[in-house]
């Protein structure tokens, strides 16, 4: 009898996997693949560096490149000295040039692991050379990339940046403001003159669009040592726990409704 086996297995069919119909599979893969990598490499949690891809070491804002590199080096040296079976407070960036490169480079200077959550874009975004090879992860979807920024993170450090940095920063501040994550995540705005010039938080309070206490969701710092000191004060290493330690999404309790018989 003639063999009538199918020529293509669905999960090996690249044209299908690239199709619109397979979008849910791609989204799921962008959740499961990083999870597998973090477990394999024993990454428990991260400290995320945000900042401009356009900023250059020898450019007008070059001091921020140097200071991001130095802070990432200090964080990595501190992390490597912590007693733990899993790897704690690993420097994580968006994987591209500019501040992202500086953060990965600083961690590499300290001979530590460093993560790059890259994304395919027409311009600017190519993985930098300082990411640990096994921890270079490329995403197709911005929202899945932002999930992996947020859920293993123990702290966020935002250096001067543009639309992308503002998008990521506001996402994190919104999660903190609305208590959607079950852990406190310190947010550091590095470069007070830049951030005070770019975002008028006082005006938001004055107009009533944020509460006065929302200003306590973030801290300004202006040098690497002050940022490290703040992180060491805010982040208490916790023994045990899963790897990676993912923040849980908090669902507020629903109000009780009266039954029809009452």
Folded structure, characterized:
The protein has helices at residues 14-17, 23-40, 62-80, 99-109, 142-150, 163-177, 192-198, 201-206, 224-234, and strands spanning 46-50, 90-93, 114-119, 136-139, 153-158, 187-190, 218-221. The chain has a 7-stranded parallel beta sheet, with helices on both faces. The protein is built from 9 helices and 7 strands, in the order ααβαβαββαβαβααβα. It is globular, with a radius of gyration of 21 Å. The mean pLDDT is 90. It has one domain: Rossmann fold (3-Layer(aba) Sandwich). By secondary structure, the protein is α/β, with parallel strands linked by helices.
Going across the major beta sheet, what is the strand order? 4-3-2-1-5-6-7
Principal-axis shape equals globular
Give the domain tally.
1
Q: How many strand elements?
A: 7
Unreliable stretches covering 5 or more consecutive residues:
none
Sheet-strand content, in percent, reads 5-15%
Task: Compose a concise summary of this entry.
The protein has nine helices and seven strands. It is an alpha/beta fold and 262 residues long.
Secondary structure elements and pairings:
Blueprint (H helix, E strand, L loop, with lengths): L13 H4 L5 H18 L5 E5 L11 H19 L9 E4 L5 H11 L4 E6 L16 E4 L2 H9 L2 E6 L4 H15 L9 E4 L1 H7 L2 H6 L11 E4 L2 H11 L28
Parallel strand pairs: 1-2, 1-5, 2-3, 3-4, 5-6, 6-7
Helix pairs in contact: 2-5, 3-4, 3-9
Primary descriptors:
262 residues; alpha/beta; Rossmann fold; 9 helices; 38% helix; 13% strand
